[in-house]
Amino acid sequence: MRSWIAAAAAAAVFAGAAPAAEVGGIKLEDKASVGGQALVLNGAGVRTRAIFRVYVGSLYLPAKANTPAAVLAKGPRRVQMNLLRNLSGDQLVDALVDGLKANTPEAELASIKAQTDQLVAIMKGFGEVKEGSVVTLDFVDGATRIGLDGQAKGSVPGEGFNQALTRIWIGDRPVQADLKKAMLGG
Known about the structure:
Elements: H1 2-16, E1 21-23, E2 26-28, E3 31-34, E4 37-49, E5 52-61, H2 68-72, E6 77-83, E7 87-88, H3 89-103, H4 106-111, H5 113-124, E8 128-129, E9 134-140, E10 143-148, E11 151-157, H6 159-170, H7 177-183
Helix pairs in contact: 3-5, 3-6
């Protein structure tokens, strides 16, 4: 009887602990904390370019959301990139700027130029980012906090800037359609 009770107690403990997701060989936490608020993994997928796997992109939100409008209505949020290959800061920046241009009307893009320039300077400062590194883009308290491997690297103010940045992955012309679907939990 005691062994049955011990087994039941152990099962109850493990039932409460959700396993982390695994995407593209990367184990992702099912929760993250941004600005002191617990976020849940909304979805994740692999970003590919030509035949190369570049990173696992994941989206963390206060509560699950499956539309771009619902994602952008929630804060704080995190876009996380777990690198699957070495990239230079320039490669990261070029891809993000291209994504901003593809998903942001010209007038809005002009209005966030100063913030885009800040992001470019911060990310170029990364130098070469190694396979296995983790880049985080956290939106909290009206700013985008940029992190590399758990270290704060800088902050860029503005909700409008963060929404434009987030649309790189979930906008009308996302960096990759199947990655958008995966990040939106699909």
